């Protein structure tokens, strides 16, 4: 399997969505529509992309490869863009009924929109569909207590490892940047530092895609060690490992993640990241700890430990 491409085939659409806060169309092609509603209007989500606390298992989280959009049973589901249906029905590698659509700018430059937990598809494999075309109805997932659409974007391939944050592609208001706080949680060691980074996101569209913590020298400004949690990279690593227990342990590569509960009524969404055993300095007076967060709209925020 080839590694995912670093640049999205939807770069023009993404740039436009960020610039116009989800309104209008790309001069070189129409922007995507939301799979529920079939317009550019933002829909409430009950789960976002990335680490999430499992409501049925307190203290345990998984890595959610898409977004969940709650909707009554039988709500129409729409294709987000023109494309060709590659799957329609039940498959061993998907939970419940799925429709997957291939969208290509050119041969080999494709992304795949994936719609899961449908009651039935209204399209067949091989069919050409248009942007905003009715392709199915929402259903009730076997593992869920309420009906919703699970929606994914897989950029560059059909496998799970290619899943990326759908809010990088769907029309999304630019909104507020994340709020960021960082503090030390170790016993004031200078050579081995533990930093906790708390990120607060707007509940309407939590689009976090990267968090980092670093130790630096105050005197020289030199970065001693930086550790990065990138959602796309982590998904590829987690998928390659193929072991759900890894994520249940809430720690990988010295990074522990503690997501808060999130639902469609959340006004804010908080995720805590703990970066353990970062290299420090010989002198406590020379040690500086910083953090950085980046979201789908290009907001980059930084903070330093007091």
Automatic annotation (TrEMBL):
M23ase beta-sheet core domain mapped to chain residues: 63-158
* Signal sequence residues: 1-21
Q: Which InterPro entries would you find in this protein's record?
A: Cell_wall_metabolism_enzyme, Dup_hybrid_motif, M23ase_b-sheet_dom
Q: Name one Pfam family in it.
A: Peptidase_M23
- Kindly list the GO molecular function terms attached to this UniProt entry: metalloendopeptidase activity
Q: Which domain of life is it from?
A: Bacteria
Which CDD domains does the entry mention? Answer: M23_peptidase
Q: Which keywords accompany this UniProt record? A: Signal
Q: Does the keyword Ligase apply?
A: no
PANTHER family membership: MUREIN HYDROLASE ACTIVATOR ENVC, PEPTIDASE-RELATED
Know the name of this protein?
Peptidase
Q: Which organism is it from?
A: Sorangium cellulosum (Polyangium cellulosum)
